C-alpha cells in the first residue's frame, strides 16, 4: 500500500519519532512549508504535531517551525532536533542550544559557518533553474517528503490544491519544484550521502489519512461554533488573530457577525452589547490586549452579562506566561 520510489537503506533503527525544524527569516515561506508538510505527512500515513516560533516583525528575524513526525500520536513539542533545515545564517546561532551531535543538517553550505558539518543541498540554485528563487521552499518540501518515503503523488496533489487559486503558471512551477526535490533526494541516496547519516524516519500508520488535521485557531473556532457563537469582535493580536480570521471566513455559512474593533476596549464592549441584544458573543485576544479589557470584565459583572474571552497566551516579558 505504501510503495515509494526509494529504498530504506538510509533509515535508522530508532525511527518512531522524528523532530524536524526549519528556521529562517520572516518572509521565507516557513508557514507555507509547515502547512504543506503537515498535510503531506498526514495523507502519507504519519502522525504530526507542529508548533511555531516567530518574532514580532513582517520581515527578518529568526522564525522557526518544528514538525514532530511519528508512527504514534504526538501531543507536545520537544527541545531535540533530529533534522534541521537552516534557511539563513542566523538559524544555527539561534538554535545552537537545541543542536546536538546527532542533529542532521540539510541545507546550503553558504548559509552556515564554514566549520559546520552539513549535507549540502542546493535549494536556491535548483529553484533558479526552475525559474524563480521563490520555489526554493517547495524544493525543500519535495526533498523532505521523499526522505520520509512519501509517495510523490501525495505532495503533487497537495500543491495543486494549495496553489490552484494563484494560476496555472505558479502551480506548474511549484509542481516542478516538488519533482526536483524528489530527484535531489534520489541523487543523495544513490551517492550514499543519506546512508551515512542514518536519518530517523517513522513507520507509517493505518487510518491516519482519515483523521482531521487542525491548527489551534481552527480548533477554538469550531468549538465556538459548536457552542452557538454568532458574534465575534477583536483587535488583531498574535496569536489570537487566527480565530477572528477563521470565523470571518465563515460568517455566511454559520450566521456569524464578525467585527474588527479599533482597540481591545471597544472589542469587549461590542461583545457585551451583543450579549445584551441576545447574541452569543466572543472576543479573542492575547496578554497585553486582555489587560486593556479589565474594565469591560468588571462591566460584565456589574450588568450580569455573560462574556466569552479567548485568551491566546504567548511567552515574553509581562505578557502572561
UniProtKB/TrEMBL annotation:
MF (Gene Ontology): oxidoreductase activity, acting on the aldehyde or oxo group of donors
Record carries keyword Oxidoreductase: yes
Keywords, comma-separated and alphabetical: Oxidoreductase
Annotated ranges, domain Pyruvate/ketoisovalerate oxidoreductase catalytic: 26-183
Gene Ontology BP term (one): response to oxidative stress
Domain Pyruvate flavodoxin/ferredoxin oxidoreductase pyrimidine binding: 223-321
Matching Pfam families: POR, POR_N
Keyword Plastid annotated: no
PANTHER family hit by this protein: 2-OXOGLUTARATE OXIDOREDUCTASE SUBUNIT KORA (PTHR32154:SF20), PYRUVATE-FLAVODOXIN OXIDOREDUCTASE-RELATED (PTHR32154)
Name of the protein described by the UniProt record: Pyruvate/ketoisovalerate oxidoreductase catalytic domain-containing protein
Amino acid at each position: 500500500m505504501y510503495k515509494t520510489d526509494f529504498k530504506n537503506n538510509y533509515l535508522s533503527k530508532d525511527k518512531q519519532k522524528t523532530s524536524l525544524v526549519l528556521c529562517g527569516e520572516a518572509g521565507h515561506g516557513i508557514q507555507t512549508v509547515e502547512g504543506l508538510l503537515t498535510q503531506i505527512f498526514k495523507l502519507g500515513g504519519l502522525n504530526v504535531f507542529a508548533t511555531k516560533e516567530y518574532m514580532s516583525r513582517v520581515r527578518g528575524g529568526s522564525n522557526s517551525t518544528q514538525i514532530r513526525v511519528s508512527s504514534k500520536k504526538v501531543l507536545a513539542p520537544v527541545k531535540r532536533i533530529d533534522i534541521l533545515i537552516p534557511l539563513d545564517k542566523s538559524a544555527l546561532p539561534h538554535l545552537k542550544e537545541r543542536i546536538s551531535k546527532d542533529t542532521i543538517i540539510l541545507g546550503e553550505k553558504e548559509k552556515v559557518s564554514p566549520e559546520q558539518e552539513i549535507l549540502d543541498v542546493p535549494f536556491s540554485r535548483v529553484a533558479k533553474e526552475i525559474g524563480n528563487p521563490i520555489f526554493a521552499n517547495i524544493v525543500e518540501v519535495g526533498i523532505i517528503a521523499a526522505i520520509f518515503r512519501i509517495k510523490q503523488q501525495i505532495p503533487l496533489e497537495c500543491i495543486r490544491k494549495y496553489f490552484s487559486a494563484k494560476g496555472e503558471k505558479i502551480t506548474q512551477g511549484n509542481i516542478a519544484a516538488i519533482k526536483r526535490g524528489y530527484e535531489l533526494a534520489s541523487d543523495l541516496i544513490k551517492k550514499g550521502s543519506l546512508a551515512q547519516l542514518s536519518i530517523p524516519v517513522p513507520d507509517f500508520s493505518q487510518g491516519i489519512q482519515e483523521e482531521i488535521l487542525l491548527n489551534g485557531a481552527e480548533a477554538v473556532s469550531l468549538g465556538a461554533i459548536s457552542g452557538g457563537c454568532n458574534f465575534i469582535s477583536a483587535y488583531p493580536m498574535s496569536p489570537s488573530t487566527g480565530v477572528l480570521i477563521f470565523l470571518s471566513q465563515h460568517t455566511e455559512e454559520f450566521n456569524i457577525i464578525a467585527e474588527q474593533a479599533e482597540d481591545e476596549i471597544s472589542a469587549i464592549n461590542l461583545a457585551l452589547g451583543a450579549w445584551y441584544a441576545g447574541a452569543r458573543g466572543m472576543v479573542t485576544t492575547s496578554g497585553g490586549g486582555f489587560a486593556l479589557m479589565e474594565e469591560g470584565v468588571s462591566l460584565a459583572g456589574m450588568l450580569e452579562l455573560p462574556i466569552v474571552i479567548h485568551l491566546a497566551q504567548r511567552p515574553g516579558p509581562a505578557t502572561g506566561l
